[in-house]
Amino acid sequence: ILLTTPVPQTPLIRAISPGARYGSSVATGPAHATVSVPPDRRRGTVTRASSGPTISAQSSITCTAAGDCLRKVGRVTAGIRAPRLHSLRARLGASAFGAAAVDRAAEAGCCAVGVAAFFRLPRVGSFVISGPVSPSAAELLRWYDRHRRTLPWRALPGQGADPYHVWLSEIMLQQTTVTAVIPYFERFTQLFPTVGDLARADADTVMGAWAGLGYYARARNLHACAQVVARDLGGHFPDTVDGLRALPGIGPYTAAAIAAIAFGRPVVPVDGNVERVTTRLFAMTDPLPRARPAIARQAAHLNDDPLAHARPSDFAQALFDLGAGICTPRTPACALCPWRDACAGLRQGIAATLPRKTPKAPRPTRYGVHFHLTDASGGLLLHRRAETGLLGGTLGLPGPQWRAERWSMEEGLRHAPAGRPAPQWRHVGEVRHVFTHFTLIVDVYAARIERFPNSIARSGGLVHPHDRLQQMGIASLMRKCIALAATPTE
């Protein structure tokens, strides 16, 4: 059993005994304090407290480990004003507040003020934790067994997960919703049934299958990772977090997710869903992104329950499903949550406001110019973008670098592809596209020539038939520009 308080502004521990008045306390120590109560020193189960209105919404536990709690978080410090405690310290010594001293202090009914304050803590009795008690893995897993999502990459109950499917889905799900990923996952597994098939595919085929999912560096890393696994590891993914992290494109979260789901490693993958669940469970009010390290440390203890270790794959996916279906960003369904009794955010009435976020700066606007040039046979001129940067490695319409100032027509046409005779460019409209960190407005120009000169290839141009564009790795932005230019004008 872990007894934890997440915020130093709230009381850490409040102790009660039959007939005692309510004891106040003030936390002045670290932001988080966790007390581990070993099995041989605990008795009873976590329940709702029922003694008095001031503690009716808190959790209580009957336990024989009061000494552990005081030794961990109840340090007696200088400046204590309770006369009875001064007297007790004089008899016992300021540094001798061990288990025997705890019992004698409890019998004396004193109040110790340090990291936490205690009032009449009996030798064996009941105490109240104002911070949440770690939630029950059994409750979450019972809920998951009834309500688990059916997803194309998820193994059925009783079956082992396919590491290739888990890895592929986790890469695709980065910055992308489950609904958007499902058709791409199904297409990928049809085109590339195994990691070896993916490794042997050419880059354009992979980028074409990925086109529309965005964040194209993921596709390049996906292909590179498949090649490493197929070439160097015999087609088998490593089964440890460290081994997975050594592969291209796999970071801490993805490595933990694959290790837990595919290989049964007892780790907690912390994605946006788990982050949200954790902040609400422990009422963590520091804003993102600054709070992320503290949230990750707290989330790492969600699977301390031995039952979570017994079912690590199910436990990790249960956390994902809880965040996706119950503990949702805007309107959490707290009444249906299997962890509602342990949720400090719900008790404090702030669950829906968490996690809090630092206000974002306004998204800036950038401007671009792109050129749609076709020939009489229906070929379209494309350029491959640089491997680094946004849309890296994808095919797209030629044009200059995007910038912060709008392009005039005269200035933009200086970057237009050449031809003989010179193309007659017309402005066909604007495309607006929103990236994560900025909004892009593109002026699109279109022209048609009889045939492309040989010099097009020397300048890095590639001519592709219009009817084959669906198979090419063309990003959504460029598809918008192509569709605009191809729209008949009145």
Keywords:
4-stranded antiparallel sheet, 3-stranded mixed sheet, 12 strands
Give a description of the structure.
The structure is a single chain. With 490 residues, the protein is α+β, with helices and mostly antiparallel strands. The protein is 35% helix and 13% strand. A hairpin with a 4-residue loop joins strand 10 (426-434) and strand 11 (439-448). Helix 11 packs across helix 15 (312-325), helix 12 crosses helix 13 and helix 12 crosses helix 15. The longest helix is centred in the middle third of the chain and has 16 residues, at 217-232.
Please state the structural category: alpha+beta
Distance between the termini: 73 Å
Number of strands: 12
Name the overall outline: elongated
Radius of gyration: 30 Å
Mean of all residue-level pLDDT scores: 77
Strand arrangement, major sheet: 2-6-5-4
Write the layout of secondary structure elements.
Layout: E1 2-5, E2 13-15, E3 33-36, E4 47-48, E5 59-63, H1 66-73, H2 83-92, H3 99-108, E6 125-129, H4 137-147, H5 163-172, H6 178-191, H7 195-200, H8 203-210, H9 217-232, H10 241-245, H11 252-263, H12 272-281, H13 292-299, H14 306-310, H15 312-325, H16 344-347, E7 365-374, E8 379-384, E9 395-396, H17 409-413, E10 426-434, E11 439-448, H18 455-458, E12 461-465, H19 476-486
Parallel strand pairs: 7-11
Antiparallel strand pairs: 1-3, 2-6, 4-5, 5-6, 8-9, 8-12, 10-11
Helix pairs in contact: 1-3, 4-15, 5-6, 5-11, 11-15, 12-13, 12-15
